[in-house]
Write a structure and sequence with these properties.
The chain has 186 residues and is an all-alpha fold. It has helices at residues 2-28, 46-51, 67-98, 104-110, 113-116, 119-130, 136-143, 157-172, 176-184. Helix 3 (67-98) packs parallel to helix 9 (176-184). Helices cover 65% and strands 0% of the residues. The termini are far apart. The mean pLDDT is 80.
Length: 186
């Protein structure tokens, strides 16, 4: 009887976890850009030798193909900045919500709002904010006189990293500024 109730979950785990892992391991030993495994030629360990062909692993530009190590470097930068901001905002949020402020129960509930909004909606919202042609951020910067032309936030590597960090931090802690203002009322 327990296996009958566990079977749907086991199937989902196998289908969405272990099957993609097995496909990626197969892709690691094949080349090309085709999606279907039958259309990809076998290259053996050539993909792994490309990863290890670097002058310095701390300088992705010294690699023969720097895509993988550049991705590792970008992930490390993202993790350092994003985790630091989340820890900082978590500390501020905890300090603010421990004070006796007006509507403390409301603010504690509002803190959970990002998890109630689906990620797809949040993604479209940030795409609209950072859009190069008609984005809200470009409009604000032009109206304040801080930018004379549109900035392509999501196509430039440095600004795209900042945009992703800002969007993810907001998704995690959107109400932090409002809570700080509420705390200043007391």
């Amino acid at each position: 009887t327990p296996w009958f109730f566990l079977a749907p979950n086991v199937v989902v785990i196998l289908l969405f976890t272990f099957v993609p892992i097995a496909i990626n391991i197969y892709y690691a030993f094949t080349g090309g850009v085709n999606l279907y495994p039958s259309q990809r030629p076998s290259v053996g360990v050539e993909n792994f030798s490309t990863l290890l062909d670097c002058g310095s692993y701390f300088d992705p530009s010294s690699c023969r193909k720097d895509i993988f190590w550049q991705a590792i470097w970008n992930t490390a930068k993202y993790a350092v900045f994003q985790v630091s901001l989340m820890v900082l905002f978590s500390l501020i949020t905890a300090l603010v919500l421990n004070r006796k402020i007006m509507g403390r129960g409301f603010w504690r509930g509002a803190f959970l709002m990002p998890w109630l909004v689906p990620s797809v909606i949040v993604s479209f919202l940030w795409l609209w904010i950072f859009n190069a042609n008609y984005g809200v951020l470009n409009g604000i910067l032009r109206n304040l006189g801080l930018a004379s032309s549109n900035i392509n936030w999501l196509s430039n590597g440095a600004s795209a990293m900042a945009a992703v960090i800002i969007a993810k931090t907001w998704q995690t802690f959107p109400w932090i500024a409002v809570m700080i203002l509420a705390a200043l009322q007391t």
